Amino acid sequence: AANASVTGQADPGPAGVLDGLRQRADADLPPSVRLERPAVGWADLVTSAAQEALLRSVVDRMRGQAQVLHEWGLAATVHGGGGARGLLTGPPGTGKSLAAAVIAAELGLDLMVVDLGALMSKWLGETEKNLGAVFDAARRVRSVLFFDEADAIFGRRTEVADAQSRWANLQTAYVLGRIDRFDGLVLLATNLRSAIDDAFVRRLDVVVEFDEPDREQRLRLWRRHLPPTAPLADDVDLAALAALYEITGALIRNAVLAAAYAAAARGAVIDQDALVQATRHEYEKAGRSFPGRPRRTAGTTRLMRG
Q1: 303 confidence band (pLDDT: 50, 70, 90)
Q2: Of 207, 24, 13, residue with least CA distance to 110
Q3: Which residues contact 175 (CB under 8 A, 6 or more apart)?
């Protein structure tokens, strides 16, 4: 057969080769790194129009890379490898990781998630070895690099007072050099922008700040996490939940799942009380004061899905 190799096996084709590279990359990566194949889209992301525009601009940079840098001749004006670098900053649970996954999916690339805090090693040369393996694997499988907890290494620098401080600065310099030479997309996330060194922020192409969702966004999040296939009682009022509970999308997702499992265990549908109790638990887990039960607003969830 035309597609058979000399060994008699079928030619795996480009997709098969890429799958093989993914498996090799997974095997070679440190435990604090994972390779994901995102299956999400813009509709899964609840952000403001301004935030979405910035996120889409990252996609535009990568798609236009060959045309702008090579066909139009702007490569000479670019420092380093010509890749793109973005910072996603905001409180936990506001959508930073999801945004990185959406960008990777939009580009048709895998997402390599790196926990920088866990990857850093106190042993001389070990951090460079780990990070070198990450960058090399990302280049081989053409993945978006996503550094979580970026302030672990890009935090504000202090005076070099001892050998440990000097070693930390050397580690930072090494990572910066690898990012500059990387011709792909690097996204970094932090819960607190003020914790990131200003000198590093100036080297970034895009900075997207994620705020805690407002009332309208919270309503969209409740609707997003409760699909039409979910069996809801007539007393469920998502507008009331969104109005009273000022929580992030991650906590809304947790509450919905907890309420759904509780309802399934009872052999019942998801009702308002189950959602309220699950939300109360999320407040308790976060050490926050629970605002109480919401007042019922006009209408029901079934009339507000559209």
Answers
A1: very low
A2: 24
A3: 131, 153, 154
Could you please report the per-residue DSSP string of 51-81? Answer: HHHHHHHHHHHHHTHHIIIIIS-GGGGS-TT
Q: Which amino acid is at 253?
A: R
Provide the 3-class DSSP secondary structure of residue 277.
Answer: helix
CB–CB of 41/105 below 8 Å? yes
Strand partners, 35: 112
Q: How many CB atoms lie within 10 A of CB 217?
A: 19
Q: What is the pLDDT of residue 148?
A: 87
DSSP H helix total and E strand total for the chain: 13, 6
Q: Is it the case that residue 99 has pLDDT exceeding 60?
A: yes
Structure tokens at 109: 């690339």
Exposed/middle/buried for 236, CB within 10 Å: 0-12, 13-18, 19+?
A: buried
- β 206-209/110-115 pair status: unpaired
Stated pTM of the model: 0.81
| 123-153 pLDDT, tens digit each | 667 778 888 888 888 988 889 999 988 877 7
- Calpha distance 110→176 (Å, rounded): 22
